Amino acid sequence: MVQKGLAVAYLGKAYQRDEAEARAARRGLWAGTFQPPADYRAEHPRAP
What we know:
Layout (H helix, E strand, L loop, with lengths): L15 H10 L11 H7 L5
């Protein structure tokens, strides 16, 4: 999924190369603008 640009590499370095290839080829999520989920959650904290 990461290689096809359909997921973000979160499990350490295991999928970093696949993500880099997807980004370079502008596949899936990387075809346009994309905000990583961790960044979104940091900007939009849930109310307790």
